[in-house]
Design goal:
The chain has two domains: 86 residues, Immunoglobulin-like (Sandwich), CATH 2.60.40; 262 residues, Purple Acid Phosphatase, chain A, domain 2 (4-Layer Sandwich), CATH 3.60.21. Helix content is 16%, strand content 34%. It has a 15-stranded mixed beta sheet that branches. Strands 3, 4, 8, 9 and 10 form a five-stranded antiparallel beta sheet that branches. Helix 5 packs parallel to helix 6. The longest helix is centred in the middle third of the chain and has 18 residues.
Amino acid sequence: MNTEPKSEEFTTVPAVFAVEDSYQIMVPVKCGMLFWVEVGKEKYFDHSNGVIRSDTLIHRVSVPTKVLDAAGKYTVCFKKVIKREPYYTETEETKTKTYNFYPVRTDGVINIYHIADTHGDFSFSSKAGKYFGGDIDLLILNGDIIDHSSDVKNFEIIFKLCEAITGGEHPCIFSRGNHDLRGSCAEKMVDYYPNSNGKSYYTFRLGRIWGIVLDCGEDKSDSNAEYGGTVCFSGFRKEETEFLKKVAKDGEYLDKDIEYKLIIVHIPFTYTLDSPFNIEKELFKSWADILKDKIKPDAIIAGHLHRTCVSKIGGELDSKGQPCPVIVGSCALRDQNNAVTDFIGCALTIDGGKTDVMFTDSERNVLSRETL
């Protein structure tokens, strides 16, 4: 994996996020530029209804999954804008940088690393995320990577983690957490993170893996004084329920080449916490029922609880009828001053019908292991 050299105009190397049947190649930048990606002979532009965007500090280009998987590399291209005019816009010469790309393996062992709840820590979590080194197949960033959204600069840690762990060469999945939803810039997240037509919940397909990213929203009722009347997640979750029903009805998860089905969600919704966190019990049970009766996933991967555990069906997190094992895979260790002293993430290896779940620290030590 090679994260250098990167363009001096970029904040990080690109991150390649899986969304539905495409990759969203995203990169934060330091100045106005026209931006596109070339895969083979095809050009994919960051544009707004045909107008190539330049007045932005984050670029996003969608490339079909099958196209990038087959090519095994992509080239980012950009021209810094000197002066954008109604006629004869001035730009610098085009610059390019090519990255190798390694899709999730089509045979053999699949290596996945999961991180959530870093709350702004980069040092320890990035080291933990390097457990597989260059042999990683997929990185999952599962919410509360930032502590809050008071400044768009906070969003950069997402891309810094992707850079440190994948170097722009391996696919990533991103899921929102409840702390992502707090602050004056929370409403702008849709511009800075992967999404499906503005929605933070969507399916994805990576070779033999199919899955759904779900978004529980905040962890307390909308009327809680902590939010000051700034959220409306009750309606949001109802819309998401209809999405989940449609996914179950459409049956894309029944493809004969799918060997493993994952649900990525920050809050482990099958578990009912104490008040005031005991929200949406009936709605979340309906999610569990849809998954259990129709989709039948192999695992739910979550964070939020600030500990690590594997809850099998009927286990400690089964308040609403788990459809499958629930893996809670993240925990920052802190000292008496609340400073982070280490980070525990989750390494998963999938081999046929067997999944090894390993909780590992920043020194790549395996602290515990369980086989599903």
